[in-house]
Amino acid sequence: MEDVPADLRYTREHLWVRVEGDGLLRVGITDFAQQQLGDLVYVDLPRLGRTVLTGEQCVVVESVKTASELTSPVTGEIVAVNDGLGDDPAQVNETPYKAWIFCVKADDLSVLENLMNHAVYQQFIEQ
Q1: Which residues contact residue 119 at a Cβ distance below 8 angstroms, ignoring those fewer than 6 apart?
Q2: Euclidean distance between CA atoms 105 and 6, whole angstroms
Q3: Which domain holds residue 100?
Q4: Does the pTM exceed 0.90?
């Protein structure tokens, strides 16, 4: 398993969140999650401009094993999606901390305080 990057925040649903500035958050799935899912074969990306709520389902990823719904870690507007995943969803398996899925412009960054830092997330996945 890949080291858990220290510069990210993590959800209990195994999403990582990178703060990009100006309320912009880049979101992907963790190495732990991609290992549990297996080889990804399809990613259903959210629509640009869509407003999502914290905990709202906004992405579906399909693997050789299963399909999983991913939720938004914050309330805000979807401002970018990784279109490259449409042609090559395996990027998530190969480089999970580089292959982001979507960016959301957060309405309120204080919700980041509810997310885990790398040390807490590392303990969480080891349990």
Answers
A1: none
A2: 22
A3: 9-126
A4: yes
